Amino acid sequence: MAKTVMVVDDSVSIRQVVSVALKGAGYNVVDACDGQDALNKLGGQRVHLIISDVNMPVMDGIEFLKAVKQKPEYKFTPVIMLTTESAEAKKAEGQAAGAKAWVVKPFRPDQMLAAVDKLIS
């Protein structure tokens, strides 16, 4: 059974690149355009991992991460932050909120897939 990864990013092109890489590696993908959209789409369904941008309208990635970690069914779901943010303070904020990995854009799809495989194998 294929594992499901949620991709949350306000950039359509980033969502497409990440989705193509994940689908090519055999994952199911659910995508969302911001944190609020992602929360609406989660709705209790089984998601094995979340990849989220930090800077998004409506609800940013850190707020989204905190909201996800409040939900018992997603408390232990690993989250990778995929972002242009490379500041240590932002990374620390992400880790404190529960992020398991921090991938800075531009990224190589194979690097991202290696992180995904490591976190949900």
UniProtKB/TrEMBL annotation:
<dbReference type="InterPro" id="IPR001789">
    <property type="entry name" value="Sig_transdc_resp-reg_receiver"/>
</dbReference>
<dbReference type="InterPro" id="IPR011006">
    <property type="entry name" value="CheY-like_superfamily"/>
</dbReference>
<dbReference type="GO" id="GO:0000160">
    <property type="term" value="P:phosphorelay signal transduction system"/>
</dbReference>
<feature type="domain" description="Response regulatory">
    <location>
        <begin position="4"/>
        <end position="120"/>
    </location>
</feature>
<feature type="modified residue" description="4-aspartylphosphate">
    <location>
        <position position="53"/>
    </location>
</feature>
<dbReference type="Pfam" id="PF00072">
    <property type="entry name" value="Response_reg"/>
</dbReference>
<protein>
    <submittedName>
        <fullName>Two-component system response regulator</fullName>
    </submittedName>
</protein>
<dbReference type="InterPro" id="IPR050595">
    <property type="entry name" value="Bact_response_regulator"/>
</dbReference>
<keyword id="KW-0597">Phosphoprotein</keyword>
